[in-house]
Specification:
The protein has 426 residues and is of the alpha+beta class. The protein is built from eight helices and 25 strands. The strands form five sheets. Strands 7, 8, 9, 11, 12, 13, 15 and 16 form an eight-stranded antiparallel sheet that branches. Strands 2-3-1-4-5-6 form a six-stranded mixed sheet, sandwiched between helices. A hairpin with a 4-residue loop joins strand 11 and strand 12.
Length: 426
């Protein structure tokens, strides 16, 4: 196995997850169950969230308040809800996981967008007693826009409905129909009880009518990297390294994280927006020099020619350049307190580049219940719509469906410097 393949295998071991759903669907309890069943929680953590005060050891999982393993803020413990995104790590012999527990309340939808933006897979929890709620649809629609590769619908609290198969089948049908409207056809649905542990890490004896894998078995089988290394090469330049030391007087290295594709020593590359070309002289990493690098490695490239490259520029393969325009259309999740309106100006931060942008038009606002396109003259907090922007200078980008990194951006309020929107380029 080559050094490159070994590094790729190490990357594949890690899967980034996000759990979403409506209020009190059991997201924190599920993560607590996974931490306990995979031995991902320390003894002092378990003792801190024990139900029986004064106990000196934990005899069984039933003695633990599972949700408290992730709800760490005092306000969360007082109210019994999740407010901020909580990240937890656990592992099995087959794979490592980082899971984000996102809040279910509508007012914290912006926190959910943050937690889901880097995920490889999402678990959509649904309370079997309540069925598909409006917030479930909102989260599912956002996950679809974010192009999360793997969506898992986990119908939780099946113990509260007598493990009734008909309840599960009705919810599965409704979610499949809703997802099909926005082009999501690869959907995994499974029943479970996070509190009792049925169908989480072990099958249990209460749902023999379901013959699919448990949640943990499903997570272990998912692909983590997808096809990011087969896409066109993109390296947004984060920093130009000029040490200017005695032994490196003329060194110029271009540092950044490879957004997609692979690059080899000797490859011809082009710098955008200048259009100047050169060939790769060296690929330098913390661990030494490489002959080939791939996404999402952080590297420093040196070139054989002295060409103009600075922070915010992008290196691509010649003949495989990104799109170039002073106007772009994007799906926007609005998370600002003040609504987005036409003619308003913002800073648009795309990879390592920041440009001034003006809202040219609000093409439509998406109705999360029906997925209809409604006319609107503004986007309020937590609403989603398609927006067209005019930019002060050309931006080099890809469509979000082709590249999640070079196809996404955030909007920054020029007065408060707050992040007010997350965009996925159409």
């Amino acid at each position: 196995m080559t050094e490159l393949n070994i590094k790729m295998a190490e990357e594949i071991e890690l899967l980034r997850l996000v759990t979403v759903g409506s209020v009190d669907d059991g997201k924190s309890t599920l993560i607590g169950r996974l931490l306990v069943d995979t031995k991902g929680a320390f003894e002092d953590q378990l003792l801190a969230v024990r139900k029986k005060k004064g106990a000196t050891h934990i005899a069984s999982a039933a003695e633990i308040d599972l949700a408290m393993l992730t709800d760490g803020l005092s306000a969360e413990r007082e109210q019994g809800i999740t407010i901020d995104v909580a990240y937890r790590y656990f592992a099995t012999p087959k794979r490592k996981f980082i899971m984000a527990d996102c809040p279910g309340h509508e007012q914290y939808t912006r926190n959910m967008v943050t937690g889901a933006s880097t995920a490889h897979a999402a678990i959509i929890l649904i309370d079997a007693r309540n069925g598909v709620m409006p917030q479930t649809k909102r989260h599912t629609h956002i996950l679809g826009l974010l192009n999360i590769p793997h969506l898992i619908v986990a119908v939780n609290k099946m113990d509260m409905v007598g493990h009734d198969q008909a309840v599960f089948e009705n919810i599965r049908t409704e979610m499949q129909e809703y997802c099909a409207k926005q082009g999501i056809n690869d959907l995994i649905c499974l029943p479970m009880s996070a509190l009792d542990g049925d169908m989480v890490a072990v099958r249990g004896d209460n749902m023999d009518w379901y013959d699919g894998d448990t949640l943990l078995e499903t997570l272990e089988s998912l692909s983590a990297l997808g096809d990011i290394d087969t896409k066109p090469f993109r390296l947004p330049v984060q920093l130009v390294n000029r040490p200017q030391t005695a032994d490196l007087p003329d060194y110029r290295g271009f540092m950044g994280t490879i957004a997609s594709g692979t690059v080899k020593v000797g490859d011809e590359v082009v710098a955008v927006p200048s259009g100047n070309t050169s060939t790769v002289k060296e690929i330098v990493t913390f661990d030494g020099h490489l002959e080939e690098a791939f996404a999402p490695q952080s590297v420093t490239l040196t070139l054989n020619d002295e060409i103009d490259v600075s922070r915010g520029d992008m290196l691509t393969h010649a003949g495989d350049k990104a799109l170039d325009s002073k106007e772009l259309t994007a799906n926007v999740c609005w998370i600002g307190d003040e609504p987005l309106t036409e003619r308003k100006k913002y800073l648009l931060k795309h990879t390592t580049n920041t440009v001034k942008a003006m809202v040219a038009s609000i093409d439509f606002r998406r109705d999360i219940h029906t997925l209809n396109k409604d006319e609107s003259d503004e986007l309020a907090m937590n609403e989603i719509g398609q927006i067209t922007f005019k930019l002060m200078k050309p931006l080099h980008y890809d469509a979000y469906v082709d590249n999640r990194t070079t196809g996404s951006f955030i909007l920054i309020d020029t007065f408060t410097n707050n992040t007010v929107g997350a965009g996925m380029i159409v």
